[in-house]
Amino acid sequence: KNAVLNPADKYKLSLDPQTGKIQFKGKRVMLPKDYLHSIKLSVGFLGTSLVTKNEPFGFFNGNSEIKNGLNSSYFVIRYENQVGSFTSPFFYRIGVGYRADGFTPKQDKVFSQNENYLYLQDFTKGALKKTSLNNYYITVPLEVKWVLNPKYVEHENVKYVDNKKTQLYIVAGLYGGVRVTSVIHNKFSTAYSKRVVERETVNNGMNNFLVGGKFGIGYGGVGLFIQKDFNPIFNNDAQLLSKYGLQIGLELVSINF
User: Fold this and answer.
1) Is 19 left (phi over 0), alpha (psi -120 to 50) or beta?
2) Which of 205, 225, 208 is nearest to 217 (CA)?
3) Average pLDDT, the chain
4) How many CB atoms lie within 10 A of CB 146?
5) Of all helices (H) and strands (E), which one includes residue 5?
6) Which secondary structure element, helix H or strand E, spans residue 4, and what is its range?
7) Of 64, 98, 139, 174, which sees the most CB atoms within 10 A?
8) pLDDT at 2 over 50
């Protein structure tokens, strides 16, 4: 089977000890310029807070009806390439990804909806164990990366940024998102059952599109960043005080192809 799927060990998966990145590549000899463009799969986790328009960076805003916490995740496939000459420390990145946000109300309340509004209410069907409203988006990020500690290598009298070295970098960019679906998830127990799970698709109160900005710093395969939605996650049909997303994230996995 291995001879068919991977003849003559043409492809291999490896961990680069210098950059901390996982790499999937073939046997072909890679030249310095080949490392200056790549396709990467990245996975990260985020803490999401809902803020108001007047307090756009109030991450620990106590007035929000939603709990703060590690409640979001994403994965993204990016194409990265150098901007300018072979010695330029600037790179652009464009990709497509999938983002999942979860919102849990405070004070044991749950999300509910009627024909016109999305709102919070007390739960009365049993002993509530877990509740959340989960949003799912297809995202398109466009970013610029600035390598702060570029190292160089020469090949055939041409100087290149050595993209195999561990890099300290700053990244900034924009992203757009299209909402795929939103689901209210309630898990509770009653006198007749210890485990009841309810799922309801959200029809009101959500904006279908997101636009936001991102700024972060990274070293090797790990990145720390903050991103802010410019338009609200929830629209005027949602009876919430805080509707804008503010996220602090950690990118932990990066696989190069």
Assistant:
1) alpha
2) 225
3) 89
4) 16
5) helix 2-5
6) helix 2-5
7) 64
8) no
